[in-house]
Amino acid sequence: MSERGGPAGPAGGTGGGAEGHGGEGHGGLLGRHVGFVHALREVGLPVSLAEGLDAARALTVIDLTERESLRAAYAATLVKRPSHRPGFDTLFDLWFPPATTGLYGSRPGPDAGDDLDPETAELPELRDRLAGLLAAEDGPGDEMNAFARAMVERFGRQPASPGRQNWFSYPVLRALSPETLMARLLAEVLAGQERGGLAEKVARQRIERNIERFKDAVSTDVRRRIAEDSGIERIARSAVRPPLEQLDFLRITRADLAELRREVYPLARRLAARLTVKHRLGHRGRLDFRRTVRASLSTGGVPLTTHLKPKRPHKPELVVLCDVSDSVASFAHFTLLLTYALREQFTKVRAFGFVDTVDEITRFFVPGADVVEAMTRLTSEADMVRFGRTNYGHAFERFAERYGDAVGPKTSLLILGDARSNYQPPALETLKRLSSGARHAYWLNPEPVNQWDTGDSVATAYGAVVPMRECRNVAQLAAFVEELA
């Protein structure tokens, strides 16, 4: 089956109408549009009402039988950042599928392979067909998608309760094992050519891209079939990961850290700028006595006009206190990335990590150091643990005792942690002493507000001393930075 003609379904709907797609009320094009825009918002993509209307207007000037034109129209009006595109594409394939089981049946159509019957062909024949698709130089496109749908129909079905099926990608990929075709394909593509050179590298990259396309096509069809059984809304919530800027710090993985670094650096620059503005506006400057007296001569010695000395350029100083315990391990990775970025924006940054005691970790983040290597050294060399159980009170007391002079009237104090202290004394007076000696003090907490003061959390008590903000993701950090002015 070709991709052309997919969106036009019964009752003006898309992808075969509501009956074949696991949900009532989505059969009309308007219903599909509203549901799709709502699903984008549900997974965290920022889509305003005006942008939804722009997308609706775009549908009136394109050929709705061209599915990729429909995708492009929605993407142009609704997607703001490249990082949002994967989630958008996943939801688009759910709401506007290229085929539906109810409308087209289980057979994939002629594009799945000339005279090959995917239902009865032997496995070696199917692998030969897949090999031909993977070797295509210009990308297999519709043909591969149709073949993937046929393979899901044949291998991806697992019986469940009567009248229902479970669908999985793994049995399809296990049966066809596309990675094991690499050596064979390279031998065919490079017949007579020298191995190990540029030609092999180019061919290998092309084949690897096509393997990923096939896997994506299988996953897309599996999601589509599950949506037909369970409803689009249900599968949409679990199929799409939130955008990076809305991904909870407590759930980030190591793979997210590289992308997170790109988000943190501009925020660090803005944070430094905001704190500088607060410092500049906090005082009018010192009286310039000489200029004031000189100006008073024209008014008989009466100083009607006062003159102030210009303020010296100032970059704020920063002290960062980071909870690096296991309970906030992912958040700790983020805070250390932020600390590393902040060192380049402030005149003086001193960073301290703690679990149940505290140690200065500034030395691990010297300019030019690799941040991953710095984190590795920090975990093995820094003295932040006595008994291994988080103790904010003891950490604050030790900080005041050993590093109290780090906080002064030019210092902004930034505390990063979940305020969970294993029911130990919170040392509120010590924290009050430290924060009162700083120019500004802020606390960023990675837990949702509705979890504050549950269990061993003393968030409200600490928040009464140092203003505490929920900071679960990059978007909330950006909002905090913007509100500092």
UniProtKB/TrEMBL annotation:
InterPro entries: UCP010256, Uncharacterised_CoxE. This is VWA domain-containing protein. Residues 1-26 are annotated as: Disordered. It comes from the Bacteria.
